[in-house]
Amino acid sequence: MCHVIVTCRSMLWTLLSIVVAFAELIAFMSADWLIGKAKPSSSEDVDNRTGGSQEPYHPTLGIYGRCTRISHMQFPRRDTLCGPYAENFSEIASGFWQATAIFLAMGIMILCTVAFVSVFTMCVQSIMKKSIFNVCGLLQGIAGLFLILGLILYPAGWGCQKAISYCGHYASAYKLGDCSLGWAFYTAIGGTVLTFICAVFSAQAEIATSSDKVQEEIEEGKNLICLL
Known about the structure:
InterPro entries: LHFPL. The chain is about 50% helix and about 15% strand. It has helices spanning about 10-30, 95-120, 130-155, 160-165, 185-210, 210-220, and strands at about 5, 35, 60, 65-70, 80-85, 125, 130, 180, 225.
């Protein structure tokens, strides 16, 4: 018989697992890993409301994508265009970034799988006498290691030609040059920290769903057990 068990700790772990998976996925897909040096506005970049020149813009560069400003052929205005600069994996600007993409993708795949499974832990707490919480916590720890490897290798690619074109000639491995780090990089770091927190907290979720109070409610014949 299926017992739906909901506790504060198990629900918090589930929500954190989902948030972490989405945060890492969004960061990976974003082009805001590096914020390039300011590009001066041309004489055509005029603010229609004030009549003055617009502020210089900052192009951004991600692991496989970028955002830059392009001019229209028919109209004297410019729009920011975002999209992948690499049509396939081999065209990613640096071998280090290719390794970063592999490690991050592996970590994100594991996190998304755990996030999907975590939704069903309210009904199923064990498989083959193994606690789902403990298994998911172990997988989150492994995913965290993949994410760390990816984030460590990423700065080693700052010396590639693509990064130099955005960050200037002083850019090199682990040196930003004229660039600054974007929100996607910080989001990936924050998501990695939360991944390990989730891995540790999964043990608390397992304890909460197998507590004496839960067992008492099961023995009383209750199918829906909610403990705050």
